[in-house]
């Protein structure tokens, strides 16, 4: 995978902090949940530390249809079209080839005390997320964190036609830069194959001045992040080039090859076991996949590198790559569970066991669980059930030993109906956040990344404080970012399976997003995923979906709210959660939000719900407030 990272050989010599002016963001811009409460963060914009509080400056934007003419680019960036044409030495009617670097003159200023920005407005032509606006449309010239900050809409409330305020990354030179002859700091979005030395050579400046302008602490430059190039005068149109948009090809493209082999294997499995429709769909998708190989590689990389730069919360959780899991002797398991005595049975083939002083849960499995064991050993997150150990006995049974979850499954908890427990909305929001955080971790921060494939309220377990953890990884599958793979065996839980999976066996992280949408509805309504209405079975998601599609949805939704929640003034909260759920349940997987989008929306909702004062809540918020 190294070939996708752009080497930066002279990096570590020259990052002299004394003169370093702006921090390079690295891949922190991929994480849309970063906060900057303890000072400016490069995951937002450049810090307002120049001599001037405003300046005129320049950005580089790569022409990409529909933004490939003077008018469309000036419209997108709110740049003066005449100046734009002049500085690029072209006429007003030029159509730029795709990938051509276009110099964009903008006004940069400190709007808040923390950050520089160049303002523009963007009207949403299609449904997008803040991340795709920042990364795909603006090519990294803006960031999802700053978009979230400057717009009143939640991450999931974006609709076609909405006008968004887009702050573009820019900066004005500092005193010392001006003294050493710098007039402008050009904002340059890094592309495949760029290195500090190649950029310095192209823009005719020294590598050391580039390194001084950007504190680079990552071992590589990442595409769709920005660097500042200090220039002694206006940028020269003769230095701009046309990019091929391809990752460098000087070393063998290992991840795509591996991936296509895997896809081929899967394909042949599909050929062997099913015919007709499924095969056709898979073949079509497979060809689409081949055409999109390049972006596949991007995603693989994104998945991998995101792990190194993540929000603090998650960074805290990633303790070790492979945590310790004990291999138990069968005698120990038998003793702990009192020979699987029925009084220790928790449910199904799960038993409570006393191991020394610790109560743990033992799950007996008749199938080969080595895949699950190997996977769980590598996973270490507060919101994913922890495998403490395992055992394989002579008869070929596997016994997995997990942390014990006092409150059982979320399904049981919702049915228990203990008023005190159920009263508070923030407990439910916390559970939703716990699940979302666990899924976000599985989708983005593990190596390899995983799709759980069987998210439902029985596979979410609650500990004594009702904090949720994801369990049962029997069906989990490796995933490579948002790529779709095909499977011929459609297995899962009724009521939770995404349409593309049910109908065509397509597997991607978005199927977990769909199932999460159903779990959210259960949290709001207390009902199960398939309910009986007028003698027929209907999907809870269909019922709430039609409620939400009507005018007056908020009022109508109130009759579906879990009765044990009514009275705690949670109608607005239920409505906000239901909106997230509706977005998760969108039919087309690509239009569903990512778990990161969902986490940021839930955090927003959580902030607006004042915690109820009850003894259990108090202890909970103390534990969480670190
Ligand atoms: C760069 O990052 C460091 C460490 O996070 C921080 O102390 C410093 O203020 C940042 N500098 C700028 C210009 O943002
Ligand atoms: C950009 O184009 C859109 C749609 O064509 C238009 O509504 C908007 O006013 C234009 N913005 C500017 C700044 O010209
Ligand atoms: C602008 O382009 C013309 C031809 O297209 C060329 O002759 C001229 O030298 C260019 N000027 C600059 C400043 O690059
Ligand atoms: C963006 O829109 C707002 C409100 O419609 C307007 O006040 C502002 O001038 C616009 N900004 C730019 C750069 O066009
Ligand atoms: C960012 O945008 C580029 C260009 O559209 C795309 O190729 C890339 O996959 C995007 N990155 C992520 C992480 O989605």
From TrEMBL:
Keywords: ATP-binding, Cell membrane, Disulfide bond, Membrane, Nucleotide-binding, Signal, Transmembrane, Transmembrane helix
Location of the Protein kinase domain: 288-603
Position of the signal peptide: 1-20
Positions of the UniProt region annotated as Disordered: 238-259
GO cellular component: plasma membrane
MF-aspect GO terms: ATP binding; protein kinase activity
BP GO terms, sorted: response to other organism
Domain LysM: 186-229
Protein name: Uncharacterized protein
Species the sequence originates in: Acacia crassicarpa (northern wattle)
């Amino acid at each position: 995978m190294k070939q996708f990272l752009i080497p930066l050989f002279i990096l570590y010599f020259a990052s002299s902090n004394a003169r370093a002016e702006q921090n390079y963001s690295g891949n922190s811009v991929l994480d849309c949940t970063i906060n900057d409460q303890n000072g400016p963060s490069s995951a937002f914009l450049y810090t307002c530390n120049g001599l001037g509080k405003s300046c005129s400056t320049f950005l580089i934007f790569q022409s990409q249809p529909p933004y490939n003419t003077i008018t469309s680019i000036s419209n997108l960036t709110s740049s003066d079209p005449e100046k734009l044409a002049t500085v690029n030495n072209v006429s007003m009617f030029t159509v730029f080839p795709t990938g051509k670097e276009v110099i964009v003159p903008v006004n940069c200023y400190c709007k808040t005390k923390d950050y520089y920005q160049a303002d523009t407005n963007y009207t949403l032509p299609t449904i997008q997320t803040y991340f795709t606006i920042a990364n795909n449309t603006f090519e990294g010239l803006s960031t999802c964190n700053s978009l979230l900050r400057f717009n009143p809409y939640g991450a999931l409330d974006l609709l076609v036609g909405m006008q968004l305020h887009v702050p573009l990354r820019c900066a004005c030179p500092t005193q010392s830069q001006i003294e050493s002859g710098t007039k402008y700091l050009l904002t340059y979005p890094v592309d495949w194959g760029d290195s500090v030395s190649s950029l310095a050579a192209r823009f005719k400046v020294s590598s050391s001045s580039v390194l001084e302008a950007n504190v680079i602490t990552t071992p590589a430059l990442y595409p769709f992040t920005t660097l500042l190039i200090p220039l002694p005068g206006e940028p020269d149109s003769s230095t701009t080039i046309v990019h091929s948009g391809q990752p460098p090809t000087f070393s063998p493209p290992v991840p795509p090859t591996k991936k296509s082999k895997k896809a081929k294997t899967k394909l042949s499995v599909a050929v062997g076991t099913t015919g007709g429709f499924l095969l056709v769909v898979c073949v079509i998708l497979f060809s689409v996949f081949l055409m999109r190989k390049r972006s596949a590689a991007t995603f693989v990389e994104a998945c991998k590198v995101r792990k190194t730069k993540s929000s603090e919360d998650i960074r805290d959780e990633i303790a070790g790559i492979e945590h310790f899991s004990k291999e138990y002797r069968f005698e120990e398991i038998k003793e702990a569970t009192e020979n699987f005595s029925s009084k220790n049975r928790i449910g199904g083939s799960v038993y409570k066991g006393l191991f020394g002083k610790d109560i743990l849960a033992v799950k007996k499995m008749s199938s080969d669980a080595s895949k699950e064991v190997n996977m769980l050993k590598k996973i270490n997150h507060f919101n994913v059930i922890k495998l403490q150990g395992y055992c394989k006995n002579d008869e070929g049974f596997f016994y997995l030993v997990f942390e014990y979850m006092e409150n059982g499954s979320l399904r049981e908890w919702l049915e228990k109906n203990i008023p005190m427990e159920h009263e508070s909305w923030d407990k439910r929001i916390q559970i939703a956040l716990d699940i979302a955080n666990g899924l976000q971790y599985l989708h983005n921060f593990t190596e390899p990344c995983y799709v759980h494939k069987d998210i439902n309220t029985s596979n979410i377990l609650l500990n004594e404080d009702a904090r949720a953890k994801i369990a049962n990884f029997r069906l989990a599958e490796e995933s490579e970012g948002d790529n779709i793979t095909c499977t011929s065996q459609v297995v899962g839980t009724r009521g939770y399976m995404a349409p593309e999976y049910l109908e065509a066996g397509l597997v991607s992280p978005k199927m977990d997003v769909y199932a999460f949408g159903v779990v959210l509805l259960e949290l709001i309504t207390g009902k199960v995923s398939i309910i009986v209405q007028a003698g027929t079975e209907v999907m809870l998601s269909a019922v709430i979906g039609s409620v939400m599609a009507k005018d007056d949805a908020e009022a109508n939704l109130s009759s579906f709210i879990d009765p044990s929640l009514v009275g705690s003034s949670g109608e607005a909260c239920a409505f906000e959660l239901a909106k997230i759920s509706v977005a998760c349940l969108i039919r087309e997987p690509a239009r569903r939000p990512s778990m990161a989008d969902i986490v940021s929306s839930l955090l927003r909702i959580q902030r607006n719900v004042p915690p109820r004062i009850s003894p259990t809540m108090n202890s909970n918020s103390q534990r969480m407030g670190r």
